[in-house]
């Protein structure tokens, strides 16, 4: 008790303990020489042991506090480092843009990929291109003969771009000609639809054979193109892409890899035209059936199919198309396989063979007139 009373007077910072359970509290050192030594080996004094335990607990807490502090410091240092590196990296990109006198034009959706690891990855996704003919790479980066075509890719006829001796027969392996592009999203989607049409007709670049493409799209569009049945992404674009091409969604590029950064992520997609399409019918017919079929995605197919026909005959023709295709009437568009869409297309073709004028019917054009009809009918019922 005496020892405790004295020790209470001692300033807490001069009390140091080195104790360990295995030492059975054999050693206790005091930093203050004025304090008398306490002989704890004599007899187990409960109060002293409690005091030492308390001191040990305090020490432990201090150590934990220090560890927490150190961890927080590390996190802060790491975040600051990453921030500095980010700013440094961005300034390098900005310098490169300035060096090449490039200015990102918003109206052309110019978002540049400055990381050559990503451009390498895109080129790798194109497959074996060594010694090949490639449409689009940067002039300065290319050791090969390079020709810049200034123009709108949507209206360029690519027929004459490649040497005729590179052409391959359609049923052969694809020629060593590649279309690689990182185009604005508002250009890439209409362009690929146009190119599917060219593929179906074997026109433009596809006069050279089954020319492959490696193109970027908004990530969600890439996902739609490869979407299998029963997925929420399945849509008209899935039908069009998968009907004419073997298609692979290779990888995604995060928006932050571009300068300036777009609001969305980007998907890289590789296309190889099929020797024979799954639905071997004219592009416009397949496109029209797919468009109408998916115009009411959550409804039964019959609703979308019926929009292929004028109002007076639509229910009969739609039922006939489903029956001739051996498809149930309660099927929804995202449940239909490509060969089943094909059966619907052939059924539609047979109807057109009987009544060719039906081919001209366009639901969208007639929509306004029909809506007016419905409204006036409802008006009359009031
Ligand atoms: C997303 S940026 C990509 C730039 C560069 N290829 C890259 O990957 O860093 C899109 C490029 O397509 C060009 N572009 C925009 N509309 C175009 C069109 N209709 N025809 C051809 N190029 C177009 C823009 O000028 C821009 O250079």
Question: Which range best describes the helical content: under 10%, 10-25%, 25-40%, 40-55%, 55-70% or over 70%?
Answer: 40-55%
Total strand segments: 9
CATH hierarchy: architecture of the domain at 106-157 and 165-277: 3-Layer(aba) Sandwich
Secondary structural class: alpha/beta
Q: State mean pLDDT (0 to 100 scale).
A: 82
Strand order of the largest sheet: 4-5-6-9-7
Residue fraction in strands: 5-15%
Give the termini distance in whole angstroms: 102 Å
CATH topology tier name of the domain at 106-157 and 165-277:
Rossmann fold
The number of distinct helices, counting runs of at least 4 residues, comes to 11
- Largest sheet properties: 5 strands, mixed
Bound molecules: S-adenosylmethionine
Which oligomeric state applies?
A: single chain
Q: What's this entry about, in short?
A:
This protein is 45% helix and 10% strand. By secondary structure, it is an alpha/beta fold.
Describe the structure.
Helix content is 45%, strand content 10%. The chain has 382 residues and is α/β, with parallel strands linked by helices. Among the domains are: 106-157 and 165-277, 3-Layer(aba) Sandwich (Rossmann fold), CATH 3.40.50; 294-381, rRNA adenine dimethylase, C-terminal domain (Helicase, Ruva Protein, domain 3), CATH 1.10.8.100. It has a five-stranded mixed beta sheet with strand order 4-5-6-9-7, with helices on both faces. Strands 1-2 form a two-stranded antiparallel ribbon. It has a two-stranded antiparallel sheet with strand order 3-8. Helix 4 (185-201) packs across helix 6 (236-244), helix 7 (283-293) packs across helix 10 (338-354) and helix 9 crosses helix 10 (338-354). The longest helix is centred in the first third of the chain and has 54 residues, at 46-99. The termini are far apart. S-adenosylmethionine is lined by residues 108-113, 152-154, 182-184, 187.
């Amino acid at each position: 008790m005496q020892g405790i009373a004295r020790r209470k007077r001692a300033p807490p910072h001069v009390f140091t303990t080195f104790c360990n359970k295995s030492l059975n509290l054999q050693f206790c050192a005091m930093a203050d020489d004025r304090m008398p030594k306490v002989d704890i080996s004599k007899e187990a004094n409960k109060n002293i042991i409690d005091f030492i335990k308390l001191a040990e607990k305090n020490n432990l807490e201090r150590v934990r506090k220090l560890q927490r502090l150190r961890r927080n410091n590390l996190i802060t240092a790491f975040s600051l480092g990453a921030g500095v590196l980010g700013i440094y990296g961005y300034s390098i990109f900005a310098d490169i843009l300035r060096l090449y006198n490039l200015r990102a034009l918003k109206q052309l959706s110019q978002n540049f990929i400055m990381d050559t690891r990503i451009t390498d990855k895109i080129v790798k996704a194109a497959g074996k291109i060594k010694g090949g003919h490639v449409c689009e790479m940067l002039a300065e980066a290319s050791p090969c003969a390079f020709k810049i075509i200034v123009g709108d890719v949507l209206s360029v006829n690519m027929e004459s771009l490649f040497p005729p001796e590179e052409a391959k027969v359609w049923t052969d392996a694809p020629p060593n000609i590649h279309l690689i592009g990182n185009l604005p999203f508002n250009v890439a989607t209409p362009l690929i639809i146009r190119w599917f049409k060219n593929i179906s007709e074997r026109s433009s670049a596809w006069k050279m054979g089954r020319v492959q493409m490696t193109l970027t799209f908004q990530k969600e569009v890439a996902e739609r193109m490869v979407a299998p049945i029963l997925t929420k992404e399945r849509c008209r674009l899935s039908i069009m892409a998968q009907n004419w091409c073997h298609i692979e969604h290779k990888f995604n590029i995060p928006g932050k890899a571009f300068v300036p950064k777009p609001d969305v992520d980007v998907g890289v997609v590789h296309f190889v035209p099929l020797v024979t399409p799954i639905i071997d019918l004219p592009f416009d017919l397949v496109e029209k059936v797919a468009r109408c079929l998916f115009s009411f995605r959550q409804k039964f197919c019959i609703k979308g199919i019926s929009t292929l026909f004028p109002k007076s005959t639509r229910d009969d023709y739609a039922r006939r198309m489903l029956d001739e295709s051996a498809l149930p009437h309660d099927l929804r568009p995202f449940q239909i396989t490509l060969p089943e869409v094909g059966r619907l297309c052939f059924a539609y073709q047979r109807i057109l063979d009987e009544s060719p004028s039906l081919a001209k019917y366009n639901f969208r054009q007639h929509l306004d007139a029909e809506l007016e009809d419905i409204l006036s009918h409802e008006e009359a019922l009031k």
